[in-house]
Amino acid sequence: DLRRAFRGEVQFGSAGFTEADKVKTKAGRTIGTSVTDCTPRSSTKAHCTAALAVKGGLLDARFVLDFATGKIAGKVTGGTMAYRHATGTLAGTSFNGGSHLVVTYRL
């Protein structure tokens, strides 16, 4: 398992929202940066993409954020360098009205 927890500031726009912050381990150690972009597809769900820049390259993912439950579920879709052929899943939870995300990546 590759575990990465991140909490970030969210910027809302008319077409969706973007989250950018440091990527941290559960212990709070900074290991990289992340950018997450979400586009609402209904009043209850948004489709999102994420890019994590960590040692070894970029890790890319796609997921769905359920506004009603705060749950996040998706797939690792690849990346660059060490993560070029990465596959796996991700799951997590949003809190504080969706302004913070905690996500676990499993490769």
Put the structure in a nutshell:
With 107 residues, the protein is an all-beta fold. The protein is built from no helices and ten strands.
Total beta strands: 10
Query: Which shape, going by the Cα principal axes?
Result: globular
Q: What is the helix content?
A: under 10%
Order of helices and strands: EEEEEEEEEE
Describe the sheet with the most strands.
10 strands, antiparallel
Model description:
This protein is mostly beta strands. The protein contains no helices and 10 strands. It has strands at 2-3, 5-6, 9-13, 16-24, 30-40, 45-54, 57-66, 71-79, 88-95, 100-106. Strands 1, 2, 3, 4, 5, 6, 7, 8, 9 and 10 form a 10-stranded antiparallel sheet that branches. A hairpin with an 8-residue loop joins strand 8 (71-79) and strand 9 (88-95). The relative contact order is 0.22.
Secondary structure elements and their pairing?
Layout: E1 2-3, E2 5-6, E3 9-13, E4 16-24, E5 30-40, E6 45-54, E7 57-66, E8 71-79, E9 88-95, E10 100-106
Antiparallel strand pairs: 1-10, 2-4, 3-4, 4-5, 5-6, 6-7, 7-8, 8-9, 9-10
